[in-house]
Design brief:
mainly alpha, 4 helices, 0% strand
């Protein structure tokens, strides 16, 4: 059920709620963030931010940084960057 929550919120719960009655919620958030399917979701969210430019809202972005970020994501996903269009 926690896996349906936004990743930004789960990361906040995991990082912030580490005291008393809320410790159990932080541990549950940690578990969800480690599930392979949810980890895949986090990777795709990162790729979407880079491709849509949403990642540039919080930091200064240049074309060079965007290309580098996109290349990093493509390597993680195993995309074939040498694939050429057939003419």
């Amino acid at each position: 059920m926690l896996g349906t929550l936004p990743s930004k919120y789960l990361k906040w719960v995991s990082k912030t709620l580490r005291a008393r009655d809320y410790e159990e919620w932080a541990k549950l958030a940690d578990e969800v963030l480690q599930v392979p399917v949810y980890k895949d979701r986090l990777e795709w969210e990162l790729a979407e931010k880079i491709l849509t430019g949403d990642d540039c809202i919080n930091k200064t972005c240049s074309t060079r940084n965007l290309v580098s970020d996109l290349l990093d994501v493509s390597v993680r996903f195993g995309w074939d960057n040498d694939d050429k269009w057939l003419e």
